[in-house]
Amino acid sequence: MLKPHERVARADWKGIAGEMDAHGCAPTGPLLTAEECHRIAGLYDEVALFRSTVDMERHRFGRGQYRYFDRPFPDLVEELRQALYPRLLPIARDWAARLGRPAPWPDTLDAWLAMCHQAGQTKSTQILLRYREGDWNALHRDLYGDLVFPMQVVIGLDEPGAGYGGGEFLLVEQRPRAQSRGTVTLLGQGHGLVFTTRDRPVPSARGWSAAPVRHGVSTVRHGLRRTLGLVFHDAA
Questions:
Q1: At what angle do helices 75-99 and 109-118 cross, to 10 degrees?
Q2: Which of 61, 88, 131, 212 is deepest in the core (most CB within 10 A)?
Q3: Cα–Cα dist 226/97, whole Å
C-alpha cells in the first residue's frame, strides 16, 4: 500500500497548477485511505493532542467546532504537510512573480516555519474540524500574521452521502471590477483540495491583479462531517 507521501508524489501537479490558475482551487485525488481517515478523525476526542478548541458559534464564525493540533503532530499529519509543501512551492513562487511580490518561501517547510517563528508566529495551525447537522463555516481567510503561505489543503475524513449531506466546501473570489465568483466542491473521503489562502493572480488590463479569496463550508444537512486542514504558516 502506498504511503501518504507517495500518494502526494503521484498526484497530477501540472494539472493542479492549471486548476489553481483557472479556479483558485484544485482537487488532488486521494491522499488518505479510509482507515487513515478514521484514524485521524478518531483523534478529535483526545484533547491532550490539541493546543486549543474553537467554538465557531461563540465567536460568530458559523456553527461547529475545530481544534488546533499541538506539537508534535501525528505522523500522518506531519508526513502530509512535509510532502505537500515542496509541491505547492513552485505555484506559490510563480504567483508571486506574476504579482510582482517577494517570494520569501525557502525550499523546505522547516526553514519556512523557522522564519515564521523568528517573526513571532510560533503557534501551530494544523486543524481538525467537526461539523454536525446544522453546522456551517462563515467565509473567511486563515491569516495568522504577516508571513503567509498562499495555498493550503483540506482533506475530507468522512464519506459524503453515506456519512453526511450538505457541507460543501465554498470558495468565493472577489473579481476586479466585477461580481464575485463562487466555486463549490464536495470532498470525497481521503481526497484533498488545494485552495487559495488570501488572494491569487488574475489577468487584468495591467497584466496581473490580486483577487481576494475567502472560503467556508455550507450548512451540513445531516450526519457528521470532519476534515483535516493543513496550513503552511504558523500563527502569532
A1: 80
A2: 131
A3: 35
Q: How far apart are CA 102 and CA 192, in angstroms?
A: 28
> Is residue 20 within 8 Å of 200, Cβ to Cβ?
yes
d(C-alpha 81, C-alpha 231), whole Å: 8
pLDDT at 21 over 90: yes
What gap in Å lies between CA 104 and CA 85, rounded to an integer? Answer: 14
Beta-carbon contacts of 51 under 8 Å, excluding residues fewer than 6 positions away, are 68, 69, 70, 123, 124
Burial of 6 from C-beta contacts in 10 A (0-12 / 13-18 / 19+)? exposed
| Residue found under cell 473521503 | 189
Segment 175-184 mean pLDDT: 85
Mean pLDDT of 198-216: 93
Q: Pull the grid cell for residue 211.
A: 483577487
